[in-house]
Amino acid sequence: SQKIEQNSEALNIQEGKTATLTCNYTNYSPAYLQWYRQDPGRGPVFLLLIRENEKEKRKERLKVTFDTTLKQSLFHITASQPADSATYLCALDSVVRGGADGLTFGKGTHLIIQP
Amino acid sequence: NAGVTQTPKFQVLKTGQSMTLQCAQDMNHNSMYWYRQDPGMGLRLIYYSASEGTTDKGEVPNGYNVSRLNKREFSLRLESAAPSQTSVYFCASSELRGGRAPDTQYFGPGTRLTVL
Q: Rounded to an integer, what distance in angstroms lies between the CA atom of residue B106 and that of residue B95?
């Protein structure tokens, strides 16, 4: 069955360092992969999308890589700040449901940036 | 431009009671979705509507019904609430251009439901 894995343990990073989050998937051939941010008590907010034919995507301090051979995406936040503390979700289009009916989300990784 | 709105924000029900969660979007999106989020389980799709007038089951549809009232509104109904339905419910919408075009979703603030 299809599976998306994100590190379920909280990731503690010192302010100013680069935070790297991992999303692994199995039994998927996604056309694209997305990353969302979720703050406590709020809905997820879209951050970045990367297509299967793209190796890397950047947006300000954020960088996403996508390795379809390894079936892995890495999400980097450079020069991290306490305000970056949140849960980060990766999401893939659902091949099972034909890709036209939504996303399947990982469980998320809780990132804590310590001052 | 409010985006996606949900009502109510909080609700406590007794087992067996019914209720409807309301969702509306003002972005003229075609597709709308209902998810539930439980600790350790992540977001799971309950139902979705790819366009006005159509609805389909997601991963966990049992115990729920939906109505796509018009292009703006998509409601989720619990006919006979059970403690296992205690969760946070999120509504989302997307433009969705069909096929495997990217489906960026916009989420509402959520409804926190407790069933006693």
A: 9
Q: Do the beta carbons of residue A64 and residue A48 sit within 8 Å?
A: yes
Cβ proximity of B102 and A53 under 8 Å: no
Residues 6 or more apart in contact with residue B48 via CB below 8 angstroms: A101, A102, B31, B32, B33, B34, B55, B56, B58
Summarize pLDDT for A26-85 with one digit per residue, the tens.
887 888 899 999 999 999 999 999 988 898 999 999 999 999 899 999 999 999 999 999
Enumerate residues 6+ apart whose C-beta is below 8 A from A28.
A2, A4, A71, A92, A95
Interface residues from chain A to B (CB-CB < 8 Å)? 8, 31-32, 34, 41-46, 49, 51, 89, 91, 93, 97, 99-108
- Give dist(CA A88, CA A106) in Å, integer: 9
**Residue A95, both tokens:** 């091949």
> How far, in Å, CA of A47 to CA of A60, rounded?
11
State pLDDT tens for residues B45-91. 999 998 888 899 988 999 999 999 899 999 999 999 999 999 999 99
Q: Please answer yes or no on whether A49 and B104 come within 8 Å at the CB atom.
A: yes
Q: Cβ(A111)–Cβ(A21) under 8 Å?
A: yes
